[in-house]
Amino acid sequence: ERQAIIRNFSIIAHIDHGKSTLADRILEKTGALSEREMQDQFLDKMDLERERGITIKLQSVRLPYKAKDGKEYILNLIDTPGHVDFTYEVSRSLQACEGALLVVDASQGVEAQTLANVYLALENDLEIIPVINKIDLPSADPERVKKEVEDVIGLDASDAVLASAKAGIGIEEILEQVVEKVPAPEGDPDAPLRALIFDSVYDPYKGVIIYMRVVDGTIKKGMRMRMMATEKEYDITEVGAFAPHPVIMNELSAGEVGFVVANIKNVRDTRVGDTITDANNPADEPLPGYRRINPMVFCGLYPVESSAYDDLREALEKLELNDASLTYEPETSTALGFGFRCGFLGLLHMEIIQERIEREFGIPLITTAPSVVYKVYQTDGKVLEIENPTLMPEMQKIDRVEEPYVKASIMVPNDYVGTVMEICQNKRGNYLDMNYLDTNRVTLTYELPLAEIVYDFFDQLKSSTKGYASFDYELIGYKASNLVKMDILLNGEVVDALSFIVHRDRAYQRGRALTEKLRKLIPRQMFEVPIQAAIGNKVIARETISAMRKNVLAKCYGGDISRKRKLLEKQKEGKKRMKAVGSVEVPQEAFMAVLKID
Ligand code: GTP
Fold it and tell me: Where in the cell is it found (predicted)?
């Protein structure tokens, strides 16, 4: 029977514990890639991902494996993204599996993301196989980490594979355990088709390529398929699997993993978590767990050169093709001109998109500080969702404002508990719980406003714990807070792109810190420039940039011509990221400055 020889599994791990390296070794061991083709981290496709050492787009590979029992198996390895921003995608790709390798670094032990991923795997009823990786490191302590896996996660680690993905140790044992322990897929091959979409990418020639797992029935070329949530229908032109190169197949049936192509022009029609069925013989119920995910963090993206506006729109259009969770709409700022308000799943997602626009499309950007979505209850009964601080109504019209909260778990060595608690207090956190993992490590649980996490939380956490803290969070809902809009005035004019929303108790301190910071960031102009922070009409802080005294070029006159040219070039370079706001030249950093004060 076909299903009996299939094993569908993922690799879950904390960032940097070696997931991609292990995936490479598995590809190598199963002979999926020839020596010549073997390149590091095949599953991490994009350069950007490689540079940052993170996995964004998940994928699947179909690997033939001859096990020690003499049988030929088909292993489908489904890759998962490794960051908290993409939790929903991780959970859907885990739903496509029956088992998961849990990779834990033998010198680091269990981290926040290890646990978060284990919970996702358990929610999806996966068989979890612990792998203690990096045993080649001198600092490796596999016995301690095994014990941690048992004590902290509650998994039996007596059979945990001791491995080194780097040195190629333990790979075969891992594959044998996958065959032995991961259950073969169940599901009814004769039932109406139900296939789970766990990812999709846009290909300029074929249109959208859907990555999916067939749960019931069979999917084949020529079939008219229907996506049950979006209710879109298409005729399937190709069915296949990645091995790891695409291989066209006649059909894929219950338990199998692969791709479908159907001349689809928009990834929005192929939502992660949606169910594909046969339009002519539809299933009664979709697969469980579909959720429409909404962006959590918004910011304004503006071209430095106004003439690049159309290029920016084209870039966003192209990126959107591949990224159903990116949203954007035109926005105008008095300070920055024409640009776009963009929505992202989280901060990392935001940084990735910004970087791709600048690097792949060559458009220098001015980005405004990220904001969360606030719910504003007006006295007239209307409720607004505000994702741009500028749009906050006047104070008199507001009954109350609610902001999104998260539950955050922070794992940290004992010595840093005090430091971390202090950071959390500073970030308006409510302490919930503290748990000792062992004699040396603690998990702290806090309720925190998402906006405070957006404001530099992660960097502060890392730098004040020498990088030892690890962190994970989930959204828990909205709560009322005493929030006000702070405006920044340059030369007496409100700069809309610098407005932000802040808790009233911190408003004074933030206003002071920000004006001070701006004074340092904004270069001197030919005239004096006052910088003010104001709530409504009330100015709460003021700084002044004094006027420029000398022409900087003056000292070059008569001097070395190449030095003069260098200076000019340097100024030009600096100019690129300057935006004229009224008559004041403001550098890019100023628009992000609010993130870096505390
Ligand atoms: P994300 O994609 O960010 O989730 O990281 P990852 O878990 O995929 O980690 P990756 O495979 O990129 O490995 C992270 C680092 O650890 C790299 O520098 C690897 O070379 C190194 N590494 C991976 N496995 C081993 C191992 O067994 N031993 C040693 N010494 N280093 C390893």
Answer: Cell membrane
Name the amino acid, one letter, at 558: G
19 is known to lie in a ligand binding site: yes
Alpha-carbon distance of 25 to 171, in angstroms, equals 7
For residue 132, which phi and psi values (nearest 5 degrees)?
Answer: -95, 110
What distance in Å separates the CA atoms of residue 244 and residue 38, rounded to the nearest whole number? 11
46 lines ligand 1 (CB under 6 A): no
Q: Is 133 in the pocket of ligand 1 (CB under 6 A)?
A: yes
Find the 428 Cα to ligand 1 centroid distance in Å: 35
Of 390, 398, 397, give the one whose Cα is nearest residue 499. 390
Interval between CA 344 and ligand 1 midpoint (Å)? 27
Sign of the four-CA dihedral 23, 26, 31, 36 = positive
Ligand 1 centre distance from Cα of residue 182 (Å): 24
Q: Are 521 and 597 in contact (CB under 8 A)?
A: no
Round to whole Å and give the CA distance between 172 and 68. Answer: 10
Which pairing describes strands 584-587 and 441-449: parallel, antiparallel, or unpaired?
A: unpaired
What pLDDT score was predicted for residue 243?
84
21 SS3 class: helix
Provide the ipTM. 0.96
* pLDDT tens digit sequence for 112-164: 878 878 888 988 899 999 999 999 999 999 999 999 999 888 899 999 999 99
Percent of the chain with pLDDT over 90: 54
Per-residue pLDDT, averaged over 206-222, amounts to: 94
What was the pLDDT predicted at 484?
93
166 lines ligand 1 (CB under 6 A): yes
Atom 3 in ligand 1: which residue has the minimum CA distance?
Answer: 54
Contact 81 CB / ligand 1 (< 6 Å): no
Full-model pTM = 0.77
Interior/surface letters 301-319, b for 16+ CB within 10 angstroms, e for the rest: bbbbeeebbeebbebbebb
**CA neighbours within 13 Å on the CB side: how many for 105?**
20
Does the pLDDT of residue 251 top 60, yes or no?
yes
Q: Which atom of ligand 1 is nearest to the CA of 23?
A: 11
| Beta pairing partners, 128 | 100
Residue 165 CA to ligand 1 centre (angstroms): 8
CA of 321 relative to ligand 1 center, distance in Å: 30
Residue 136 CB less than 6 A away from ligand 1? yes
